[in-house]
């Protein structure tokens, strides 16, 4: 009887990945948030002055990459890199679960990112994103597409690599939305010598679903949940075989090829087929299957 109870308690403990959505933050959770915030502040105090000092004598800087690597670790991520990221002239295309993806990929390769325009005005986050030469884009600015493409080309030339999350939102690690191709216009035609390298991010089944910034959860609430969590978690980053975008006719074909390579990599990790995403995402015009049927 006692042994059965112990087994049940251990199973329950294993099932609890971290604070659930909407659950109040405990005092221990606030303590963890505070300690991690102090660590991030110290990393900033070291890396930002060194970054600006370095920029006075060299173009480019290794310190944004160093800060992002440290930040990912402070937030609990333990990166395991599979494959080799190309160092330059590469357009990374990745699935997207969390703001942690940016810390992980930036820390692993030093890549710049494409981000939503709203991020540019976010306190602290927008400033840090600009340091890493993030390209801010707006879905509503249809007339500014040419300017956005030019800024993407400049970022690719400056950072040698740039990452785009073509789902246009974050999912749960067990789904993959259709890829939007508007930000792949920079590959029509592809700049000389640039390759595309698909990237698959896997936090593990339960952790990925828990970490995912999905549904109606706000960004601050999601960050609180993750930063208040006890312990660390593994994040496997799979840099898949690159391909030449010139072998494909247009951005839709390029996006389809990247997605066709990411899907089996994720399914191999899950040990099961990907499932339809269960939440409506109005900004990317995605309706969950139940809503479509209704």
Mean pLDDT: 84
Low-confidence stretches: 5-14
What value does the Rg take, in angstroms?
A: 20 Å
Structural class by helix and strand composition = alpha/beta
Task: Kindly estimate the percentage of residues that lie in beta strands according to DSSP.
Answer: 5-15%
Give the total of beta strands: 7
Please write the string of helix (H) and strand (E) elements.
HHHEEHEHEHEEHHEHH
Terminal-residue CA separation: 48 Å
Q: Can you put this structure into words, describing what you see?
A:
- Helix content is 44%, strand content 13%.
- It starts with a helix and ends with a helix.
- The chain has a 7-stranded mixed β-sheet, sandwiched between helices.
- 34% of the residues are buried.
- The protein has 10 helices and 7 strands.
In short:
With 294 residues, this protein is of the alpha/beta class.
Defining key terms:
globular, 7 strands, 10 helices, alpha/beta, 294 residues, seven-stranded mixed beta sheet
Give the SSE map:
Layout: H1 2-15, H2 27-55, H3 63-74, E1 77-82, E2 90-94, H4 100-109, E3 112-116, H5 125-131, E4 135-137, H6 145-159, E5 161-164, E6 195-202, H7 205-211, H8 219-227, E7 233-239, H9 251-270, H10 289-293
Parallel strand pairs: 1-7, 2-5, 2-6, 3-4, 3-5
Antiparallel strand pairs: 6-7
